[in-house]
Amino acid sequence: MASKSIYNLIEGELAALEEKSLLRGIPDVENGAAKELLFSGRLLLNLASNDYLGLASDDGMKQAAIEAVKRYGCGAAASRLVTGNFSLYDQLEKSVAEFKGQDDAMLFSSGYAANLAIMDSFAGRHSIVFSDKLNHASILDGIKMSGARHIRYRHNDVSLLKARMEAFKDAASKILVTDTIFSMDGDLAHIEEIADLCDFYDVMLVVDEAHAEGVFGRGRGLSYERKVAQRVDLHMGAFSKSFGSLGGVVSGNRELISYLRNKGRSFVFTTALPPAVIGANLAALELVKNNHVQGEKLLELSAELKEFLVAADFDCADSQSQILPVIVGENDAALSAQRFLMNEGLYVAAIRPPTVPHGTARLRLSLRADFTKYDMDKIKKGFMNLKRELSQ
Ligand SMILES: Cc1ncc(COP(=O)(O)O)c(C=O)c1O
Question: What is the pLDDT of residue 278?
């Protein structure tokens, strides 16, 4: 079997990836969502997870998950359109819609599946989709699936976007989709200007608030913070980041959500999320709703660290959120900086192409609201030592 030619091709590709320091492997982490994770036997401060509010280990959420399992069992056993539904599901969708101030909401097995469904349902071969160059991969995959004409614009370049919209103003079906916090840069979309353009050019506006919910806008996202939420047609969010759990969610106008329920292939053709996840999500939503100061505290910690790193001459790009990139350029430089920081007791993610553009490999720090002064000092000390090492 191993003599089939595909094996040789794959072997060659793996070797090429290794040569460019692009070969990925799953890290030897024992407890990846914990604030201090156990990596190859060492306890390191976790700066790599998206559990921004520390909810993945919240006792109330654990208990809610256990209660849901006791009542409904371990698996949903079918797609929701068949028999996979249970009442907690309906309750969660209703709660999300209320929280977001929207007519209706709909859950997906992941944020990835939600973005696939949105793009594939609302865009088709005759549509134009305007999309920021740094949008998440799930959005790009959804656009590809839809067969729409994909008009990418330079990251956050609103004048270029306006020119593109003008060029396609006569098209009947137009959608703009943007992350509100860009996941590898931590900067923010110019959402007010984008909403103005979408109103003027009659373009459906879709926002991916996966990293902004729980943090901005009293936990509701950046569109809420910037007071354009009611001008957004569809809000996509994810329970996998600030909410410490799993699942994608889309909220908006009743007819749009109903259409999505009928057309979203990544919803129709998959098994529903299990009860434990829905139970945990309901508890997480209550925690975020009732404790939005955690998001505000997180942004303060992040601004403080950014100021420190920039003063030490690190390149943190234009981050304005809990995600702080430290751009180092070459792939092997990112990997060796990551290794150095492990010896300082810190675990940061080394992000390389194709996740980020070539020549912009980086460390990606994601902060957590439960970091103490001791933790923050440890991070600062680690980076000062890295600076010293780099300048030798
Ligand atoms: C901006 C953005 N959208 C969507 C997703 C996908 O969410 P999930 O991890 O829940 O599939 C991610 C996750 O990395 C993301 O960063």
Answer: 98
